[in-house]
Amino acid sequence: MFSRDKWSEIIEALSSNWFRTLLTAFGVLWGIFILVILLAAGKGLENGVKQGFGGIATNSMFMWTRTASRPYKGMPKGRQYNFKIGDVAALKQNVPNLKFVSPRNQLGGFGGANNVVHGLNTGAFNVYGDYPEIIQQDPMDITSGRFLNHNDIKENRKVAVIGEGVRNEMYEMGEEVIGTFLKISGVNFMVIGTYKKKGNNGNAEEDQKEIFVPFTAFSQAFNMGETVSWMAITAEDNSSITKLKSQVFEVIRSRHTLHPEDDRAIGSFDLYEEFSKVNGLFVALKGVAYFVGILVLLSGVIGISNIMLIVVKERTNEIGVRRALGATPWMIRGQILMESVFLTLVSGMAGIAMATAIIAIINNQLQGMDTSEMMFLNPSVDLGVVFTALAILIISGLLAGLIPAQNAIRIQPVDALRTE
């Protein structure tokens, strides 16, 4: 099958009319090029959108209190209530597969009154009372100093970790930050670290203007007692927070005397559910890319099939001579199929090479740019896509040559020799 004579015959047959062969091969080249480029573009968009999550633990939900919408056990409709620190331990004990349950309190915020003072500078910033685990749920790069730890929690230390945006607004250029004090709503906190968050979620600038202090010191300084404003809850990697959500709500309802079917009393945002929708969108985009690419490739395959029919007709005399000399139908069929697969593979690989070069150029351009807030990042295709493309090319080549090959073996030696 791989003899030198056969390959010489294949090359001679395809190069006898090189311009026609080139135009035919371009259809397959363009089809596979479009397929790879569409898949790479979809991956680049996916990378950019996922970068917008800033590395946040996507298997998470956020939960806060609302008013009771149903009366229950003598408690009236419209009743206000608050989460308590004891709810955290109850959730960890009664709901399996929870990785982190972080109680959170919050003060101030964008658009509010100035609540932070350093020297002559004042500013309005989000101040969070948190546990150290929050950095696992909402990752950030510590640019200097350190983040909160459990000793800070146990000892009620009035320490703070500030964002680079807070640092830029409250301190002079080059001024030492670590060890200095910020006055937050009249209470002094010592700065022990600075951070920077990444992402393009639409609030990138405000994300750098947050201050994190120990949950216990926050509660003590601002008279929160046992109150928890809201919680960030993350499930284990082998579980879905969406499936555990109902158990979480059940524990909270039982602890705060809420009606078991009161769905409005607890507010929540399921990040995992939203992230799954995004993943579903990109699965659909990949399917569209394959659909469009294969349709374009199919037009090229049809062109190859047509040209092979013409080649078979032009070689009627040759086929007749070979049949007269003892060539079997399978030998004739194999020759035509090999020519078809060879032409398809060569043109397809050229298309893959061209698409790879375009992707490399785009990535090279992106390397010199700040992509932290871009919605397009690192377009690429993996080896699985390449192998899939090769499989498509081989199958396409076989399909393209099948009808011409069948026509070739139907030619009777005597009829073929009479053809001028």
TrEMBL record:
Family of this protein: Belongs to the ABC-4 integral membrane protein family.
Alphabetical list of PANTHER family matching this protein: ABC TRANSPORTER PERMEASE YTRF, MEMBRANE COMPONENT OF TRANSPORTER-RELATED
Residue stretches making up the ABC3 transporter permease C-terminal domain: 291-413
Protein name: ABC transporter permease
Subcellular location: Cell membrane
Keywords: Cell membrane, Membrane, Transmembrane, Transmembrane helix
Keyword presence, Methyltransferase: no
Membrane topology summary: Multi-pass membrane protein
Presence of keyword Transmembrane helix: yes
Organism of origin: Autumnicola musiva
Boundaries of every MacB-like periplasmic core domain copy: 21-248
Pfam families: FtsX (PF02687), MacB_PCD (PF12704)
Transmembrane parts of this sequence: 21-41, 288-312, 341-363, 383-403
Broad class of where this protein is predominantly found: membrane
